[in-house]
Amino acid sequence: MFRSAACGYKPASPVICAPGEAAIKDVSIQAMRRAVYFLNLLVGTIFLAGCETMPQGIHQARVEMVQHIAAEPAGDYFIGRRYYKADFKFWGYIRRPGQPWSTAQLVMLNEKEKLAPDRERLEFGSDNNYEYKLYGSFSGQTVYEPASNGFYPEFILKGYELISTNPGPIFRSQIQGRPTPTELRYTVEKPE
Fold first, then answer.
1. In the chain, what is the straight-line distance between the N-terminal and C-terminal CA atoms, in Å?
2. 113, exposed or middle or buried, with CB in 10 Å at 0-12, 13-18, 19+?
3. Are 69 and 103 in contact (CB under 8 A)?
4. Is residue 37 a contact partner of residue 43, using CB atoms and an 8 Å limit?
5. Which DSSP state fits 102?
6. pLDDT, tens digit, for every residue of 77-117?
7. Residue 157 near residue 182 (C-beta atoms within 8 A)
8. Within 10 Å of residue 131's Cβ, how many Cβ atoms?
């Protein structure tokens, strides 16, 4: 233990030094604790503000979408979201009414009975991210898609109705901000 005779150290008394000598100033521990607490609070607030996971508008759109899905009547139809990628041949995601998008399947369309909406207009991919009410059925077969080297269920399209040209976000890239098409060109996202 260090003892300084010059500072008049006594175990039970405060440190008192002669004028001009260096000494630790008497600072209350409570004041130091308060300063550290507020500094931690300030730093934490700054970091947490930067970690917002979803902008308010997108959060509201997702809440509305969940409510809309819950209100969908049961029936002999499907809900489809067009997912266009120039290098891929799949059509998009299809789910049953009342089911969340996380249960949707990426499908290949069989258009022998009815052409897909964009193909009917000869504007391929122009309906990317549009939401449709689809009539038809799954054939039980899978179809090979060469760009992804994957097999996807075949959906036989018999009809459709446009639900929305600007539906709520279902992909992580839509929720966290839009990366450039080049960044997502060969990425196949899954709905959340």
1. 62
2. exposed
3. no
4. no
5. G
6. 999 999 888 888 999 999 999 999 899 999 999 999 999 99
7. no
8. 22
Q: Which residues pair with 155 in a beta bridge?
A: 109, 138
Distances (CA, A) of 32 to 37, 132, 153: 9, 62, 65
Token duo for residue 39: 């500094």
pLDDT tens string 121-158 = 999 989 998 999 999 999 999 999 999 999 999 999 99
Domains of the chain: 1-51 (no CATH), 56-184 (2.40.50)
In which residue are the tokens 């269920």 written?
Answer: 153
In the structure encoding, which two tokens stand for residue 115, read together?
């052409």
Partnered with residue 150 across adjacent β-strands are 145
